[in-house]
């Protein structure tokens, strides 16, 4: 056998071994996967569906996003193994871990692991300009307010926030797009959404009619920060064409989640793909600008999946011991 033949044979053998190893690593991977998102017209649906497509395309898997009731339901679906991946906010996550989920009170959800940070969810209030509602104090007694899908982060926290601020209202639930349409048609008075910005339903409203984006006063913001698991936030004026200057609000962080029993190699590859390709993530939704590993510090509730921990530690990011399985 000539030296050239030996080299070619050795190279082919090495390639076959690498391919075999890669195939072996996938032996316990599921045949397909689903990402729990939220209702259409919201950021979760856009972000989650796009992320699912990115995973499927890049890793050669079959998968996609699924319309759900949002963070609370996603936690339950992932915990029960009904979907592999999902999106949630830290408030509902803390409740779920403590067994205080509105969907499963008394059941600690211990099969939910964090993957990576997504973005902050600002709380946004809007009304039609011709309603005369320009501030929270302008909201009339008994106004009908759409809070998004039942049991969503928006529906869980926004009604409590407005009650804390002394607003008396008639509560309405529905998909983001549907409630935006109801506002435009005069069927409800206000929409109060907790969703990544820009909220697609509000952006669509701006194209079709005049809208007032309503901010919290400094006093109202301080009052909310003292009572709820949120942080101060400024909605940039560039977010919506309606805004002439930044709007004062509050926000809650979002993280992607996975069943803790998913294969470590699969979750490692998903985390690697998501954290090393922020340009592709931003092509999905511009809020993914904040989907970077530096923001893992905002999860103090859920354990990180071992596959995610491996990627973070390989790349110099420290995961606290109490957030490891």
UniProtKB/TrEMBL annotation:
Residues 1-24 form the signal peptide. Transmembrane segments: none annotated. The keyword Signal applies. Gene3D superfamilies: Periplasmic binding protein-like II. InterPro entries: TRAP_TAXI. Keywords: Signal. Pfam families: NMT1_3. The keyword Signal applies. PANTHER family: SLL1037 PROTEIN. This is C4-dicarboxylate ABC transporter substrate-binding protein.
